[in-house]
Amino acid sequence: MANRASTPQLQAVAPGIWGLRNVFTNLYYVREPEAPTNDWVLIDAGLPGSAGTIRRHAAEIFGPEARPAAIILTHGHFDHVGALITLANEWDVPVYAHPLELPYLTGRSAYPPPDPTVGGGVMAALSFLYPKQPIDLGSRVQALPADNSVPHLPGWRWHHTPGHTPGHVAFFREHDRVLLAGDAFVTVKQESGSAVWEQRQEVHGPPAYFTPNWPQARQSVALLADLKPHIAATGHGIPMHGTQLLQQLEELVEHFDEVTIPKHGRYVPQPATADETGVTSVPPAVSTAFSKWALGLGLAATVALVLVSNKKGKKRYQR
Q1: All structural domains of the chain
Q2: List of E strands, 1-127
Q3: Taking the model in full, what pTM does it have?
Q4: Do residues 201 and 248 touch, judged by C-beta distance below 8 A?
Q5: What is the C-alpha separation between 187 and 184, in angstroms, rounded?
């Protein structure tokens, strides 16, 4: 089974598709090999501060003056749009997203707050620190085509997969059944710090701490499983393929309520709601021992990271 040690930061996923691991999130460079042009697109835009890394690997794949025809988003969470404004402005290219995702990309609405009480791991407990305010791309961002085609990628279709966010989408190439799933499901237990660090490869539902609508998330996983993908490259984790992928995806659908939906949490009894203007309602925050535990774990993890960073810094200085 693949893990961080056995997979490079940049890897070929399928013909015309390269995946880049950006710390704990993924983005994809995509070109349609059979297309009459050499156009390529960037799917998602990584963490804040990653623009240089993304440009460097684009040049490695496509040449020194590489510039995409567009940047296309699965959704607008901070770990998928971190370098977006910088790259879109430098490359002077359009950005595409689902219409229901536009409020969070044009400064009109913040996402529902993350829920650090669910997931049971460090990544979940730290989620109260993650940026959740919208970015503002202004007129540079536009809605994906209503006919489900994907700009500059003939042969691809986008599928609306809400739950993790209102306008989350996944991208599917029919002829070889390649799926870019975003965070509708992922191939690592994203709530767990150790699993994320090691990149332990296994199918899981969307990151629980940032998923405010579980009924929609369940439907979206079922929709993607029905596509019977041969390869799935997700927003977090190492790409999976073949029988292992299909079996684990089928198991996720069959047991979604037991293994994926948290037993407690802010959005479990009642989901957040949203429309084309943004978030319209959010359930009250959880006020229990779980929330105190999550906050304590998150603070402890933050302190530990600071101490480790300081220790490494001192060692470098002593050399």
Answers
A1: 4-288 (3.60.15.10)
A2: 10-14, 17-22, 25-31, 40-43, 70-72, 95-97
A3: 0.90
A4: no
A5: 10
